[in-house]
Amino acid sequence: MHLLIVDDGQYVVEYLKHLLNWAKFGVHRIETTTNPTEARMLLDSDRFDIMITDIRMPEISGIDLLEHIHRRGLKTKVIFLSGYSQFDYAQKAIRFGALDYLLKPVDKDDMDKAMCQAVKSIGEKRSEPQDDFARSETDNMARPSDQPDRYCSGADIVRAIRDYILGHLGDSLSLEELGGIVHLHPVYLSKLYKQETGENLSSYILRARLEKSAHLLEVSHLHVMDIARMVGYRKPQYFIKLFKELYGITPYQYRRQRIEQAIRTDS
């Protein structure tokens, strides 16, 4: 699927781009813009399955974009964001068929639920005129594949658990939750993982979270506090402590070091 993110704030666009594991929902291409006029032109291509947009923007609002989709008969489903809880905006959004209306700052869980609803809506729409084979393919696309039905070996279990972890770094990732993914008792899963990999499951989760945070420090301008939250840490100071233990420097120093290295490389 193809996703369009529209907000007149560059930081918000960047934050949303990294907020979820979009591939989990079948989103394999993301385009962004801070210009609603450009967004309207992009929509005319009718290649976007979902648009996430701010509802209040200068000149052209999110409501205007939704009305444009409605008039042109475009396939794009819309999720609205707003810093204002205003009934008249919500009324218009619902009247023109918006899927959801989320208040800023956007909560990861709320966006996750909104995307699940969007995928379900798209799956239902695509299944209507299709034959049995095509309907089966659409259902497979619309259903997240986080929970494989069967595991043939310890290596399969490890692979499934790691895939799940990488897609849910912002979640709690408790042993109970992970055990439920592969239908194993949490204690048995912990022992099996250690036996198969030679490391504790908790150590893998820690490393995966910090490696993801290091990547975001390099490729984005997101605040350290937001990055910490995206990889599962609600207390920034605890995140900074763990990051420094692994990398030897703080996240701020790491980002500055990478920027300086990039400048030296370019010159």
Question: Describe it for me?
Answer:
- The protein is α/β, with parallel strands linked by helices and 267 residues long.
- It has two domains: 2-141, 3-Layer(aba) Sandwich (Rossmann fold); 154-266, Homeodomain-like (Arc Repressor Mutant, subunit A), CATH 1.10.10.60.
- Helices cover 58% and strands 9% of the residues.
- It contains 13 helices and five strands.
- The chain has helices at residues 10-17, 36-43, 62-72, 87-95, 108-127, 132-142, 154-167, 175-182, 186-197, 201-219, 224-230, 236-247, 251-266; strands at 2-6, 29-33, 50-54, 77-82, 100-103.
- It has a five-stranded parallel beta sheet, with helices on both faces.
- α4 (87-95) links the parallel β4 and β5 (100-103).
- α2 runs parallel beside α3.
- It is globular and about 60 Å long.
- It starts with a strand and ends with a helix.
- 26% of the residues are buried.
- Residues 130-150 have low confidence and may be disordered.
Q: Strand-residue fraction?
A: 5-15%
C-alpha-based Rg, rounded: 21 Å
CATH architecture of the largest domain: 3-Layer(aba) Sandwich
Q: Estimate nothing, just give the exact number of structural domains.
A: 2
Give the termini distance in whole angstroms.
39 Å
Counting helices, strands and paired strands, the structural category is alpha/beta
- Count of discrete alpha- or pi-helical segments spanning 4 or more residues: 13
Shape summary: globular
Low-confidence stretches: 130-150
CATH superfamily of the largest domain: Response regulator
The largest β sheet comes out as: 5 strands, parallel
Using DSSP, what is the number of strands? 5
Q: What do the pLDDT scores average to? A: 85
- What order do the SSEs take from the amino end to the carboxyl end, as H and E? EHEHEHEHEHHHHHHHHH
The CATH topology of the largest domain corresponds to Rossmann fold
Helix content: 55-70%
CATH C-level category of the largest domain: Alpha Beta
Give the spatial strand order of the biggest sheet.
2-1-3-4-5
